[in-house]
Amino acid sequence: MIRHSPIQGSPIQSTDRATFSAVSEESNTLSTLSTAPSYMNGCTLGDESEGFELVSALRGEIKNITGRTIKSLSGSFSFQPSAGIGAPSTVFIFSERSTDGIVWVPAVNSLRSIEIRNTTEQFMSVVSYGTNWLNNEIIRFRIFSTGAITLAPPTVSVLAGVTVTGPSMFWQLTEN
């Protein structure tokens, strides 16, 4: 899925503020290996994500196709943990950058850690930001934990049997 400005094929102009959101409604059991972290699996881009392309839904890879370098973005990465039984675990979240989709480099100062208690089942958020996101550069999140953690979309039945759901992961950045 490629997003362009209203004039199909033209790059987003520098006066426009770039913004995107990516959401996953899939359950994702986090890896406990720092050398083989999990990804933001099953993500889709929100409609406001003009100038961005979803390269891989399985790995949550987002490509800047605005036609320019985005100097500074800020926002959040939110997720819905469902912890297992046992001691508290720490979830580590960081982003990686790539210009070719093959070689990935951890983004400077991107690591966030959050402790998840063994009974935690609430939506949590961490600050996310990026600088100097090059045109055609790809960014993705990698996640791992020190214990059994699943990121799962919440669901609840309300009046008249209607089911209300939420995402397992949500990532949003807006240009500053």
| Main structural class | mainly beta
What's the helix-strand series?
EEEEEEEEEEEEEEEEE
> How much helical structure, as a percent, in the residues?
under 10%
DSSP E strands, number: 17
Number of helices: 0
Q: Which strand-content bin applies to the residues?
A: over 45%
- The CATH architecture can be named as Sandwich
Shape: globular
The chain-level mean pLDDT equals 87
Number of discrete domains:
1
The fold-level CATH name is Jelly Rolls
Ranges with pLDDT <50 over ≥5 residues?
A: 1-10
Could you characterize the architecture of this molecule?
- The chain contains no helices and 17 strands.
- With 176 residues, the protein is mainly beta.
- Strands 3, 5, 6, 9, 10, 11 and 13 form a seven-stranded antiparallel sheet that branches. The chain has a five-stranded antiparallel sheet with strand order 4-1-17-7-12, with no helix packed on it.
- A hairpin with a 5-residue loop joins strand 15 and strand 16.
- The chain is globular and about 45 Å long.
- It starts with 18 loop residues before the first strand and ends with a strand.
- Mean pLDDT is 87; it is low at 1-10.
